[in-house]
Amino acid sequence: LRTKNFYYACVSFVDYQVGRIIAALKEKGMYDDTLIVFSSDHGDMMGDYGAIGKRTMVDSSCHVPLMIHRPGAAPGTRDGACSLVDLAPTLLKYAGVEFPADEFDGVDLFADNDRRYVFSQHGCGEAGVYMVTDGQSKLVYSAAEERYYFFDSCPETRDSYSPANPAAAAMKPLLDEYRASDINRSRSSKTYEPVTKSHPHYPGRMDQRLFHEAEAAAIPALYRIDLA
Q1: CB under 8 Å to 27, separation ≥6 — which residues?
Q2: CA distance 33 to 152
Q3: Is the CB of residue 89 less than 8 Å from the CB of residue 107?
Q4: CB atoms near residue 226 (< 10 Å)
Q5: Model pTM?
Q6: Which of 47, 95, 120, 139 has its CA 20 to 30 A from that of 150?
Q7: For 152-203, what is each residue's pLDDT tens digit?
Q8: Other CB atoms closer than 10 Å to residue 170's CB: what's the count?
Q9: HSE toward the beta carbon, residue 67, CA cutoff 13 A
């Protein structure tokens, strides 16, 4: 209970600071011309299902807030599946910045697209937990248990996985293909090799240290920051 109290106190503090930013934008007459994105990287179990931390694919951990104030757009909500990998292409396209689309796993959230599913994982190989979801239901595979879980609601209420379940059967080939694209590197491995994406909607799992120099060289000089 005390942990939840501290957590909610932190949320209130963040809300207060976001409110200050929005108030300043309105005071300066900039609010109606500013794109604002509010999100997070992951949730926390906070005692749900008797668990703590983030290392799971249940809603408490993997469902994160995503709120966007888009100048000129009417307020509304969307319930389609999306991912944090969508933010980069969405913001770049909105800003009119040219970019190689094949280097990004996400889609432009402001454009019409026919993507139905998004994928996620924690860990890889024998320690991996993998998920595919359409935002309404999800299929999860735990490599350590060699077991599938299927939930027909978000938040989850019960595991109803069965090979005969039509919804689970439709998702299983997608999740298996996603798992097969994993580099399957153990946590203790000291060898890092570049990874080529095998699917346009799959995150490219790679050790970013290998690509630091190439990424840094691609940044226009005007935007480079010397942190030395």
Answers
A1: none
A2: 40
A3: yes
A4: 4
A5: 0.75
A6: 47
A7: 998 898 999 999 999 999 999 999 999 998 865 444 444 434 444 444 444 4
A8: 13
A9: 5
